[in-house]
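Following up on my earlier thread - several people asked me to post the actual chain instead of describing it. Fair enough. Here it is, all 105 residues.
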Amino acid sequence: VQLPVCSQSFSSSPYLDLSLYRYDDKWIAPLERPKPCGDTTVKFFSRQSGQLKFSLQTSQLGSSSTHSSKRLIAYIFHPYEPFVISIQKVDNEFIVNMHFRNSLS
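Reply from S.P.:
Thanks for posting it. Predicted structure:
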């Protein structure tokens, strides 16, 4: 038996709208839950033009972390503002990053 998903764990952010953006759902998804942390930058591409629109880079802990460490990351998207919080866990240490849109106009 599988219980329904809690409504507060699902993000309605337009940045996760698959009709607007293409991104690797291995690293990020509308369902807010920790996922294994990769060494790659999460890139968001426009569905319309295919151009890179923005990316999320997460920092890693210093030399104390190794690839054998259990590394998890969760992204929390603001429902409508261009703002994301990433929470990264490596063993018993946490890193919290605030991601803001960088407008290059």
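The longest strand covers residues 83-90. That should answer part of your original question.
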